[in-house]
Amino acid sequence: MIQESSNGSKRMSTVELKRLPSFDFKAGGKETSSVDCAVCLENFKMGDKCRANCRHSFHVRCIDSLLLKTPVCPLCRIDKIVREEK
Ligand SMILES: [Zn+2]
Ligand SMILES: [Zn+2]
After folding, report:
1. Which residues of the chain have pLDDT under 70?
2. CA distances from residue 49 to 20, 24, 45 in whole angstroms, order as listed
3. 38 Cα–ligand 1 center, Å
4. Among all ligands shown, which has an atom nearest to the Cα of 77?
5. pLDDT of residue 41
6. Runs of H (alpha helix) within 10-86
7. For the chain, which residues make up each domain, given as ranges?
8. Ligand (nearest to CA of 80)
9. In CATH, which superfamily holds the domain spanning 14-69?
10. CB 58: neighbour CB atoms within 10 A?
11. Listed residue (13, 83, 25) closest to 50, CA to CA
12. Which of 3, 23, 30, 49 could form an SS bridge with 60, CB 3.0 to 4.6 Å?
């Protein structure tokens, strides 16, 4: 059973976004990596804030603006990036 939130909205607030897990990218000693952000297609650099709840990785600043509109991964479109926390 999936319960909708009381206001019926699937949109995320910035407060909810801040609760999503993120991490600082570490490229194993290298300055950059071969891993790209799937939104802006730039390589991740040391210290970049990233999110990766599915097999895709994003800059926090890139994915957050998308998640505010649609709370799913824009690539795999499954509702995996958002975890219901009650
Ligand atoms: Zn990006
Ligand atoms: Zn994905």
Report:
1. 1-10, 27-33, 78-86
2. 12, 5, 9
3. 7
4. 2
5. 92
6. 14-19, 60-69
7. 14-69
8. 2
9. Zinc/RING finger domain, C3HC4 (zinc finger) (3.30.40.10)
10. 28
11. 25
12. 49
